[in-house]
Amino acid sequence: MPISFPHDIAKASNYLREIIPMLVKHKIPPTPENYALWYNYAVQNNPALNEKLMQTIQDHGTCTRTDSQKLMQEFVLETPPADPEAYHQLDTIMSEFEGMIEQTHSGTDDFSQSLEQSIQLFSEAAENPDKFQNLVTTVTDNTEAIFALTQSFQEHMSSSQLEIKGLKAELKKQHLQVITDALTKIYNRRAFDEKIEELTDTNNASFCLVIFDIDHFKKFNDTYGHTFGDRVLQGVAKTTEQAIATIKNTHFSRYGGEEFALLIPDCKLENATIAAETIRIKLEQLGIRSKSGTGAVSNITASFGVAQHMSGELSEDLVNRVDDALYLAKTNGRNQVHTG
Q1: Residue 30 in 3-state DSSP?
Q2: Contact 186/254 with Cβ under 8 angstroms?
Q3: Residue spans per domain, the chain
Q4: In this predicted structure, which of 46-50, 293-297, 319-323 has the lowest mean pLDDT?
Q5: Nearest-CA neighbor of 114 among 149, 151, 157?
Q6: Residue range 197-213, pLDDT digits in tens
């Protein structure tokens, strides 16, 4: 859940008074990242972040810059910046935000010191009307000053949040473009590499990898032209998406050329083999109409290699096992599924 600041000036000021002492207590500088994290902690609308933040404090006695950046990335920014210019704009906003926080922090310190002095002088001024009136005036002026300061801070927060929200949307859009295959509109090789490393790093031994290759694809290009070949790739991608629609959390990508890859988390080899066989049968039924309109080309088949990740296995070793299984499917007559 991304962090937002929907509160009015009164609530935001209350959170400010709650957050600053916590930052001081744990020796955490009031940077934009830190304030955003602790603001969310004070609001208590993100239990996962609160738990990780408290665990970090318990483990280290503070929240280091590295820890703050990791939590900021996971719970606030959500998507790593893809465009250097957009990142620069975000950095500028955050720098201005930091200046506002430091100014507000300084203002609250001054107000706190003034209030303490006023309380000490209160008993002395109680018997002297003139001193008492001067004291009331001082407290009133300081209160108005801190109110104006927090109001200015809240306005700046709201403005910055709108800008950040727009930048995050743009960065997310750019990142999606980076990991999407332009022709088939499914994930590309870069997205595949990221996902398989993610699954491998979590030591999820139950995930499976399926790689399949369109049989005699060069023949389609040579006979009907590359435009028809593109339509075959698009048809295969769409048909596969339909075939795996009921399988949860699948990651389907164009592996390269006429090869496609399917990552299936929390899956056993038997189930992955069934999924591959389902795709194979669906592709046999696929018909692509040629550009000349002479009829639909229906002899589209694919060969499949399937393997289940073994605990501790490197991603490249898993890919090699699947490649070997795919090679067997090709050499044994194509249009079949082999496991590795």
Answers
A1: coil
A2: yes
A3: 9-177, 189-339
A4: 293-297
A5: 149
A6: 999 988 666 899 999 99
Residue 14's pLDDT band (boundaries 50, 70, 90)? confident
**pLDDT by residue (tens digit) across 203-252?**
666 899 999 999 999 988 888 888 889 999 999 999 999 999 999 999 99
Strand pairing of 208-214 and 259-264? antiparallel
Q: Which backbone phi and psi does 294 adopt, to 5 degrees?
A: -75, -10
Q: Are 142 and 166 in contact (CB under 8 A)?
A: no
DSSP assignment letter at 264: E
Give the pair of three-digit tokens for residue 17: 């008074």
Reference 319, options 257, 262, 249; nearest CA is 262
111 touches 146 (CB < 8 A) = yes
β-strands 302-308, 296-297: how paired?
A: unpaired
Provide the token pair at 63: 């929240």
Instruction: Enumerate residues 6+ apart whose C-beta is below 8 A from 220.
Output: 228, 229, 232, 297
What's the pTM?
0.56
- Indicate the CATH number for domain 189-339: 3.30.70.270
List CB contacts of 60: < 8 A, sequence separation 6 or more: 67
Tally the C-alpha atoms within 13 A of residue 338's C-alpha that lie toward its C-beta.
20
**Residue 45 and residue 39: Cα distance in Å, rounded?**
10
